[in-house]
Design goal:
alpha+beta, Alpha-Beta Plaits, single chain, Uridine Diphospho-n-acetylenolpyruvylglucosamine Reductase, domain 3
């Protein structure tokens, strides 16, 4: 078992990292551990546990901002803003069931930012980094610094919040973050179309996204995975389901839904489900529930939406894969191979035919130690990444190897 450092203040955090830097001691950065199984295993004799850096330090609903310490449970923050009718518009996923994280739940606020994972709303509202306004942190040099501010237009130099979002704790240890919140939509409804083939479904999703209907989420679940949804088994046999969500004030949603059905659901079986059922359905899409109960390796693949059907079909042929589409076809959640054999060569070969990228989300720790978990970097990107790492963490003490090997 690794030894644990558990700072409770910014100064204690700075001292802990400064000690690690001076002694060249690698640290594994831990929030709740809900996403610890993503990325390469960190080889470190010491853990830096941020669980004691918890609590909401500022909330101004009228200004649409909230500030919280990095170890604050995400569920706690979501409960607070929900009571004021507000939300994190990028809808962060809860992958604990997929990853077998047990009591890890939705993780911490800092972990959410460090991972930069967004849900179905990303197609309309953007990624985590688009709502990440500022932070306080400690670099791998043991130096405290901050970036951003409590306003959206605050950048006069390099946009440090966008750099730290998605860095997986390899550049700095965040102690506090500032996020933009938005009002929750008054209601939502989802158009469900049954029985479409992948190519037809994605074409209709793209048509809906390009319309004036203001679509807030668009997904397609092929028949081989649709069986986990009750509404896909209405006829006694699982059918593919194509899903398009609208949200906003009730009269607007009703009007736009009528327009949407006339645009993309003519002459095909379809239905509209209301707010409660729609919310539950999209939570399952967001949290990768269709693949959570399986035992295979899981990939998260980002491609141009129109390329999605071809990519998944090739993965079916070359890696015996099965998967479903989010982000109007631009995101594929895909099961391929086993945790000990995630079909990496086949997956990388297929994805390389597009401008997309693939991340290995679920596999055994042995495989993750040797595999390219994140998309391989080009020579130019690798050079830039190395220079940035040298500025923030020159001794490589923060989450060494989490994203890439030496």
């Amino acid at each position: 078992m690794p030894s644990v450092l558990k700072p409770a203040t910014q100064d204690q955090l700075r001292d802990a990292v400064a000690w690690a830097a001076s002694s060249k001691t690698p640290l594994e950065i831990i929030g709740s551990g809900s996403k610890r199984a993503i990325g390469r295993p960190v080889e470190a004799a010491w853990q830096l546990d941020l669980g004691a850096l918890s609590g909401i330090t500022l909330y101004e609903p009228e200004e649409l901002i909230i500030q919280a310490k990095a170890g604050t449970p995400l569920a706690e923050l979501l409960e607070v803003i929900d009571r004021r009718g507000q939300c994190l518009a990028f809808d962060p996923p809860d992958l604990s069931a997929l990853l077998g994280a047990g009591g890890g739940g939705r993780g911490t606020v800092g972990g959410m930012v460090a991972a930069n994972l967004a849900g179905p709303s990303r197609v309309k509202m953007g990624a985590v980094r688009d709502h990440f306004l500022g932070f306080q942190a400690v670099s791998g040099r043991g130096e405290a610094f901050k970036g951003g501010a409590r306003v959206v237009k605050n950048v006069t130099g390099y946009d440090l919040p966008k750099l730290l979002a998605g860095s997986w704790g390899t550049l700095a240890v965040m102690s506090e973050v500032i996020l933009k919140v938005l009002p929750k939509p008054e209601t939502e409804a989802t158009l469900v179309i049954f029985g479409l083939e992948d190519g037809d479904a994605i074409a209709r999703l793209c048509q809906a996204m390009g319309s004036s209907c203001e679509v807030s989420a668009a997904a397609h679940v092929p028949a081989d995975l649709a069986g986990c949804f009750d509404l896909a088994r209405r006829g006694g046999q699982a059918m593919a389901i194509t899903l398009i969500r609208l949200d906003g004030v009730a009269p607007s949603v009703e009007y736009r839904m009528g327009k949407l059905r006339g645009l993309v659901a003519q002459a095909v079986p379809s239905m509209v489900i209301g707010a409660a059922d729609s919310h539950d359905l999209w939570s399952e899409i967001r949290d990768c529930v269709p693949l959570a109960g399986s035992s295979g390796a899981v990939w998260r693949i980002s491609v141009p939406p129109t390329e999605g059907p071809r990519v998944l079909e090739q993965l079916r042929e070359r890696a015996q894969a099965r998967g479903y589409f989010d982000w109007s076809g631009g995101l594929i959640w895909c099961e391929a191979g086993t945790p000990d054999d995630p079909k990496e060569e086949a997956v990388r070969a297929v994805v390389s035919t597009t401008t997309g990228h693939a991340t290995l989300i679920r596999a055994s720790s042995r495989v993750r130690a040797d595999a390219q978990v994140f998309d391989p970097l080009s020579a130019g990107a690798r050079s830039v990444s190395a220079r940035i790492k040298a500025q923030f963490d020159p001794l490589g003490v923060l989450n060494p190897g989490r994203m890439y090997g030496a």
